[in-house]
Specification:
Strand content: under 5%
Number of helices: 5
Radius of gyration: 17 Å
Number of strands: 0
Order of helices and strands: HHHHH
Helix content: over 70%
Length: 144
């Protein structure tokens, strides 16, 4: 029983990470849908706006409600937000690459194939984003 408690304590941020991850996805979908419905913007522009707003939402929810990190200077805050956005950009490009690999190179160019590779890339991206946040963006500074 003690090992289960230790395991939970070590990974207690996984449940709120999953919850706020779903909320971030909802924010992205709502913003994208609203922009698509009520503007004449190109879909790539609406995608970019929705991505930016949802990553900003994810930053604040991850910072304050998942990892409970603080910043003690403006420099530290800008480090956290810039590395968070950079990580999301890198994993987003990687996710697109996984999807393109499955569809264009492996030939899974059907609705089912695209959905399968979209799920695969999402799983990879979510896992990488979690570790990026822990080890880079919200890594606690060691006190002297």
């Amino acid at each position: 029983m003690r090992s289960l408690i230790d395991l939970y304590q070590k990974h207690r941020d996984v449940i709120p990470y999953a919850f706020w991850g779903v909320a971030t996805t909802v924010v992205n979908l709502v913003v994208f849908t609203l922009l698509t419905q009520f503007t004449n913007l190109n879909y790539s522009i609406t995608y970019g706006i929705a991505w930016f707003i949802s990553v900003l939402f994810a930053f604040y929810t991850n910072k304050y409600y998942v990892f409970h990190t603080k910043h003690y200077s403006a420099k530290e805050f800008w480090y956290q937000i810039s590395t968070f956005f950079a990580g999301r950009l890198v994993t987003g490009i990687l996710g697109l690459g996984i999807l393109a690999f499955g569809v264009s190179i492996l030939g899974f160019d059907t609705k089912l194939g695209k959905n399968i590779f979209n799920v695969i890339q999402n799983v990879v991206v979510v896992i990488l984003n979690y570790f990026w946040a822990i080890f880079i963006s919200f890594k606690e500074k060691k006190t002297k």
